[in-house]
Amino acid sequence: MKSTLAKKETVQHNWRIVDADGAILGRLAVKVAMALMGKDKPTYTPHVDTGDFVIVVNADKIRLTGQKAATKEYQTYSRYPGGQKIIPFKKMMERRPERVVELAVKRMLPKNTLGDHMFKKLKVYSGPEHVHAAQQPQKMEL
């Protein structure tokens, strides 16, 4: 038996689509992050981006369990005095529901340049329409 390592030139990136209607945010983010990293493929190699492109539609219809919808907050800090902003989950869903999914997935990816490259393959849309029909994405089960 011989194991092979994937190379950047030989990796084929497919397109997948996920419908987030009624999905739980954390469980959706785990599946999407694994697909972006390529960990669900037999050719996974840690130092090569073997993952697929992932399209998430209906991001405005995700849900949280328990009391998290009322207590979850997103924090940013500009590194200036008084530059801390805390945005509640409810307000974030009203303003930019795509950002909620993006942040959940981004925080599950590696914190390096390879992780940045993987994150660029994520496309999130708040409604059911997307502009990637020409890529013929395959449906991904949650």
Secondary structure layout plus pairing:
Blueprint lengths: L14 E5 L5 H13 L15 E5 L10 H4 L1 E5 L6 E5 H7 L1 H10 L6 H7 L2 E3 L13 E2 L3
Parallel strand pairs: 1-2, 1-6, 2-5
Antiparallel strand pairs: 3-4
Number of strands: 6
User: Looking across the biggest beta sheet, what order are the strands in?
Assistant: 5-2-1-6
Largest sheet: 4 strands, parallel
Please give the domain count.
Answer: 1
CATH architecture: Alpha-Beta Complex
Give the termini separation.
33 Å
Which class of secondary structure composition applies to the elements?
alpha/beta
Q: What is the typical, i.e. mean, pLDDT?
A: 96
Describe the structure.
The chain is of the alpha/beta class and 142 residues long. The chain is built from five helices and six strands; from the N terminus they run βαβαββαααββ. The strands form two sheets. A four-stranded parallel sheet has the order 5-2-1-6, with helices on one face. β1 (15-19), α1 (25-37) and β2 form a beta-alpha-beta unit.
